[in-house]
UniProtKB/TrEMBL annotation:
Keyword Nucleotide-binding included in the entry's annotation: no
Gene3D superfamilies, per database record: 1.10.287.70
Record's protein name: Ion transport 2 domain protein
Highest taxon in the source lineage: Bacteria
This protein's UniProt keywords: Membrane, Transmembrane, Transmembrane helix
Domain Potassium channel: 79-153
InterPro entries: K_chnl_dom
Annotated TM spans: 57-83, 138-159
Keyword check for Transmembrane: yes
Amino acid sequence: MKWLVSLAGAGLVMITLRDLFHTLWHPTRHGGLSRLVMTALWRLARRFRGRRRVVGLVGPLAMVTVVSMWAVTVILGWAIVYWPHMPEAFTFSPGSEAAREPALLDSVYLSLVTVATLGLGDIAPAESWLRLVSPLEALVGFALLTATVSWVLEIYPALTRRRVLAIRLALLRDSDPTTQQIDCTAGALLLDSLATEVVRVRIDFTQYAEAYYFHDGEDHSSLAAVVGYADGLARRGQAARRPEVRLAGDLLAGALRDLAAILDQRFLHTGGTSTQVFAAYADDHGRSRAQP
């Protein structure tokens, strides 16, 4: 029976590590529990009045919640591993009151100290298998800390790329170039560069799905508000006379279709056209979509 309880604790740790792996390191990053937490917080925030302020907190708050969830489940999992063998399989420092505490409390304390790599030493494993297993928890704790830092360092560059594209589209919308102005070599280069940036954002939504749950702030920096204008630019390019401009327009239109497909497949689930998906994207982020 003791070993079954310990195996249950080990299973809880493995489930957490699997979720961490799929959230941070899997190529398509299909997170499990972490994705559910973020989606639930996003939907809850959208129910509030004046939701822009509330929704703006969802991304950072969701990341903190997910990391806390990972830490708590790892600590509890290892505590369950120790619990059936406490206190007979452990040694206690002289004069320590720990041996008089409930076994579960001692197990949680030992797990917390070990995962934090504090190594206080007032409770130490005595059996050989526990002496081998206990350091693994410290390694898991170090990996969790490293993964959290890496996650933060990865997500914010992705958000920057998205906002740069949004601001660029907003500036183009304000200047409102005509079809004749686009129908030149400079116009072809413009559309081609926009297509490249859209592809980067599309990859970011694939690899950093949690970036979707970050609010972009003002309309001029919100991709949800201005992505419809990029659709209009692509159509102007496709209608141009110069072949290089038409080619660049086709590239931008294709990149936008791919972006809409990713948004619909992973977040919106409308099953509609690119125009309908972008409208749903704007609505989900509390924006009025820019007209082509």
